[in-house]
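new request in #modeling-help
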Amino acid sequence: MDYSAQEMMIVAAAREIADGEVVFVGMRLPLTAFGVARATHAPNAVGLFECGLARYQPADGVLHTMGDPPNQLGAAWATGLAQVMGLLHAGRVDAGFIGGAEIDRFGNINTSYIGDRANPRVKLPGSGGAADIAAMSKRLVAIINHEKRRLVERVGFVTSPGYLSGGRARADAGLAGGPAAVITDRCILRPRGAENELHLATIHRGHTEAEVRENTGWALKTAPDLAETPPPSEAELAALRRLDRDGFWR
Amino acid sequence: MKDKLVALADAVSAHIRDGDGVVLGASLESNIPFAATHEIIRQGKKQLNAIAPISDASTDMLIGAGCVALVTGAWVGNVSGGLGHNYRRAAERGEPERIVVRDHSNFSLAMALTAGAYGLPYVPVRSLLGSDMVGSNPEFRPAVDPFSDPPRPVVLVPPLEPDVAVIAVPRADRFGNSHHWGNAGLAQEAALAAGRVIVLADEIVAPDVIASDPGRVLFPGFRVTAVCHVPAGVHPSPMVGRWRRDTEFFDDYHRRSRERSGFLAWLDEWVLSLPDHEAYRARLGGRLEALRITGEALAAPVNYAAE
């Protein structure tokens, strides 16, 4: 079966959502993943949007932002940001998806400053809701393109906390949860061991361990049970392509 | 009740002063009062504190036009386009002017405005724990929850009381009583926390229309300073039941603002060369009409009868 790298990422992201869970789905790739999860193994998942929306079914039609009218029509709840993110802050959200410019070996994410903060080489847009989602959801799933400049030893600025300096650092900072998976276009990384360091967990078909390592900015360790990421099933791909009518992800 | 209906230019001139903290765009990507952003630029307001959770190009325009000294927000850029070029130029090279950025997350900004709205001296949150924003924003204070045992860390978020909140709503009466539907973002908190509230109403309706459904009132007229009737004042952002998002307009802005010279040409074409929003709408012409939502998906009526 033929599928694109992005379709593999979407299906992998969809599998991170269990049935009945309440998840922050964001936009684009994770939003499509939410739709795939609903249509396959998680028909009772609920999607939350920071702007103050909750949905059972993903919106019909193309969304450029979460506030677009199609996302409001038929919503389960149209309310304020504080209500929706308050659920998150109270620990009542199972999982959240975020992207970022940089992620490090402990799953910390930077979307704020590249270079010196007082004189940044690149001023990135900032947190939005990402820091909240990373801190307060029970599980964080990060989605990022697998490039050496993006998967770095240590981010220069922690916008959204992962396991911080590793080990118990996150718990000591007062946070539960943490990154459960980092989904890239080459593989999936997962935290392992007492250090909570990201390890290579599964490799997408067509990619190799050597290639993944070459494109990672730290000495990436491999999980002993390394496996291939199960390719999209027929049902998953069919569900995805029903949502992706224009073939944006193909 | 006092009639508060005035022209947008008069509201901006009378109620927004140099150096003010101004909320422009409190609902994230929808209902951003771009007409007010443009009028602020036309009037050459200076040294503003631009406050918005996610301003979707509005803050970027203000920065590029030299109106901003301080940015208080969670995300500044162009949601469908990418990075904010004026934001980058100002933060990276001080062009056209240096800006100070007060980093927030969406939730911390919500809590800052909530504290401002309700007179709370601060709100303790867990959301910012572990983030370098505690540090980059000197207003956040690490603390220990006095009720916790064993002691647990929290971050104290101080109140934000903007001088002005500019809020776009689908309909209001001339006294400022404002109906809203769809997601509200931080619009209610912003309106309650602000010293002055300017309403941009897509439509002005009879007071009876608003009074028929008090549950849909986002804030009452007594909290409002001025009401301006500005149809499509949110363009290019969307408004439920009224306007679709003009994504191509955002993309065009993104491309043209890549270089400072391109931004200045864009600014002249869409803001400085136009006297007001009516002229802006005329320039959009058929493009604006094509964005108008003409379908109907009406909510069921509700009964407020007392007997």
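bot summary: The radius of gyration of chain A is 17 Å.
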